[in-house]
Amino acid sequence: MREIRLTLAERRILIGLAVFGLLIPNGAFIYFFVTDPQVTRAAMTNPISLVFMFEAFVLMLLFAWLLRRAGVRRPSGLVFIVMSLIGSMVFSVPAALALVFRYADHEGEASAGGSERDLRSS
Predict the structure, then answer these.
(1) Kind of pairing between the strands at 116-119 and 4-7
(2) CA distance 50 to 54
(3) Which residue ranges make up each domain of the chain?
(4) What is the pLDDT of residue 104?
């Protein structure tokens, strides 16, 4: 499989996206969940909302499986699922990717380029 390289700027964008996902969509959900529980009940009974929720759960499980299948240990598939349930997919996907590249650097899989991050898939 082709190796993946991220520049430092790309890694920072992933981290920024993860912070955005944790604070904005997740923050809005928590705000309305606490201040107006009726909105949450209405979303849970809306068929269109349920389709989007189902899709998010399927994608969460698919990405957790993909992490496990790729042999990624940090974050594990289970940790990814917990991150997705606590935050959102906009939080967990970029956060997981940033963690994968961080740990790849620590395990000596970094490329010779100073600002590039490298992950070799097996």
Answers:
(1) antiparallel
(2) 6
(3) 4-119
(4) 55
